User: Fold these one by one.
Assistant:
Number 1:
Amino acid sequence: MAEAYIVGAVRTPIGKRKGGLSGVHPTDLAAHTLKALIDRTGVDPAAVDDVIMGCVMQVGPQSLNIGRNAWLSAGFPESVPGVTIDRQCGSSQQAVHFAAQAVLSGTQDLVVAAGVESMSIVPMGASLVPNMPFPYGESWVARYGLQEISQFHGAELMCKKWGFTRRQLEEYALESHQRAAKAIADGRFKDQIVPVNGVENDEGPRPDTSLEKMAELKTLREDGIITAATSSQISDGSGAVLIASERAVREHNLTPRARIVNLTVLGDDPVYMLTAPIPATRKALERTGLSIDDIDVIEINEAFAPVPLAWLKEIGADPARTNPNGGAIALGHPLGGTGAILMTKLLHELERTGGRYGLQTMCEGGGMANVTIIERL
């Protein structure tokens, strides 16, 4: 049976909105990551079969196939094609899936899976063009009605369904900041980050935050309990992963760092929107025959605090193994870049701790989730 290996994974620091990366054109930001990936793995860029890049707001500076444009901006061969994909927040995790599937199929040997988003330059919602019809037409309304469809509404629905209190959300958020701050202080991210414009560390974590400070914030909606403190941060960032076949490993003298074990994607209620990681994880574990206790490191995107809290409650995972170095509440969530960034974090944490299996999952607009399981080699 064919295998797909991760042979390289790098990321930029995650910059906060209007922070150190906010002046970097997203194409240049992605190109910077691609150059670092090729440099660190030592592969001939001309040998790459394809570049698959996740990006959510594909307008303005992120339009016209940023995957292709970033590769060319990096100065790499014109013979290598590129494509940009959108599975909402899971875009670059899906890029990893498509890259691995191409290798597993035997049709390609070296594929770059990457992602980028500059939310300082291209704000969330930029693709909703004014005076153009909303993306939901009559058939959608006939099926789901005129109820609100948004991540904020979904997060509040989750809080009600699972009975979370504002205090519980804030306690989780505080833990995320504390873990991220410790990871940075301990230098855990140093080997995975390629500095940009003098920025060497993730800018989001607030070591001095407290439950008292969080309690002072206004909720994002009048009748809700979600605040900015219990939501992922608006951010800028990019990540890139190189997937190789057994043949490519031999021919290019590469070192396999992890093996792709499972690729799952699943849909769930698009109104709740953020719940799909739960059934998707169950499906992935069932297909592999693994239990959640077999998983040594877990990265679940902290879009909002109720997402990992509900997942932990339903799946029964060990909280200590889940986002051990903090998540998007502290570190940030540059939409299309997050999937590749989380995979980079997951791989490096497995290597740091000597763990065997890692699992990555994230909720996505439209009520979907990707789950990827890797085995450290």
Note: Residues 99 and 346 are 18 Å apart (CA to CA).
Number 2:
Amino acid sequence: MSDKFTTIELQASYGVGRQLGEQLAANSFDGIDVTAVQAGLADAFEGKESQVEMQELQTAFTEISKRLQKAQEEAAAEASAEGEAFLAENAKREDITVTESGLQYEVLAQGEGEKPTYESTVRTHYHGTFINGDVFDSSVTRGQPAEFPVSGVIAGWTEALQLMPVGTKLKLYVPHHLAYGERGAGASIPPYSTLVFEVELLDIL
């Protein structure tokens, strides 16, 4: 740890800068210059006149916004195409069932209990990944089953749960339109993501 920030004031000041930096890193763009950011921060804090004309600032912000939008659209198109190709190939497997909605699933374990309805609340264990295998969420890893209403989850889950007797474990392949669609889910799930879940129905509450 650094010994430069030895007083409460210095430590709090560093903390403010750290928080601003984390926010900036989460909403950054190619070519951002931290030194220029520091200059703008210092000038604003000290009440100095801007070193860049307001019109130039507006033009720069507009151009960067256009670049970010274009990059997002390209990433979304790529994710959509990758997901469609993956599902098309996956559907060829003999152990895969494809429903009318486009949901794909395979049975990992067949239970014999009651099936939930749209109005039910259930307890499940699940493990969620992207099609490349990267994990984005897992009750199994946390060691804590999840409870939720069948009607309160993504459409692919709502459909699948109503097909599952208690004790069943399915592997779901969920197209983006049955998952989080064109908006994604926060920072963890990008737009147009095809998702893969292993879902075990433990109980109907």
Note: The chain has a mean pLDDT of 93.
